[in-house]
Amino acid sequence: MTYTQSHNAAVLSSHSSRTVQNSAAFLLPHLRPTDHVLDIGCGPGSITQGFAKVCSQGRVIGIDQSSYVVGQAAQTYPAADYPNLTFQAGDVLSEDGLPFPDNTFDVVYTSQTLIHIPDPVRAIREAYRLLKPGGVLAMREADSSNWYPKLQGLELYNRAMDAMIRSSGAPGFGNCRALHAWAHEAGFDRSRMKLGGDVLVYADPEQRRWWADGGLGRLKHDTEEGEEAKKQLVGEEGIAIMERDLRLWADDVDGWYSNYQVQVLCWK
C-alpha cells in the first residue's frame, strides 16, 4: 500500500490539526472510559491521544503503515505522559492482517485512511475481525469539496489530488459516500449502522492562508507515483496555474473552501 501524498511537513501539519473534537465528535458519545481503542491510519497521533484521554482506564493503540510517522507520534505523545497509549507500524492490507487477535477492541476508528486504500472493503473486514461482539467501527472520510471563487487552478487542484490518490488503486474522491455499502459487504449488518456527515469550512484569512500553504506544500512534495499522476493530468503549466490560484484564493477576502465528510458508525 502506497500513501501517495507522503508525510512531508505540509501533510503532517494538516494531519496534526485533527482532534477528537473536530474529527471524532460523532463517536465521542459512544466511548466509555474503559474502552480499548484501535486507530487505523493514526498518522501523527493527534486524534489518537485524544482517545487516550477519553478512555483513560482502557488501552489505545495507534497504527500506521509508516514507521516514520508512528515514531514521530510516539515522541510527541510519550508513554510517560500517556501511559495507556502506544503507537506501532502495521499495514491493514497485509496478508496476515494486523498483529492482534480476534475480538480485541471495543472501538476501531479510522479517518481519512480508506480513501487512500486500494481495497477498503478488505480493510473494513479486518476491522470487523478485531472488534469484540457489540463493538463499534467509526469511519470518517472526505467525499467532495468546493471552492469560492471558482478559479481554474482550484479545479485543477481537486483533480490533481484525486489523480494522485487513485494512482495507487485507491477509490479517491466521490466514492467514500459508499462507506456504509463497503461495511455491509465486509460483514456488518446494515440495520446496525448510523450514517451521517459534516462539512469543514475554511473562510477566515488565517484559515485560508494555512490551507493554501498546505496545498502548495503537497504540490511540491509528492511520492513518485503521485507526482507522475499529477503531471500526466495537468502538466507543468497546470501545476503553475494551481500554485498561482491557491495564492489568489488565500488573498481573496471572499474566498472560502468546504469539504464534505461522510461519517458512519457500525456495531458488530
From TrEMBL:
SUPFAM superfamilies recorded: S-adenosyl-L-methionine-dependent methyltransferases
Keywords: Methyltransferase, Transferase
CDD domains, per database record: AdoMet_MTases
Record InterPro entries: Methyltranfer_dom (IPR025714), SAM-dependent_MTases_sf (IPR029063)
Methyltransferase domain: residues covered: 35-149
Keyword presence, Magnesium: no
Gene3D superfamilies, alphabetized: Vaccinia Virus protein VP39
Superkingdom of this protein's organism: Eukaryota
GO molecular function terms noted in the UniProt entry: methyltransferase activity
PANTHER family: TRANS-ACONITATE 2-METHYLTRANSFERASE, TRANS-ACONITATE 2-METHYLTRANSFERASE-RELATED
Protein name: S-adenosyl-L-methionine-dependent methyltransferase
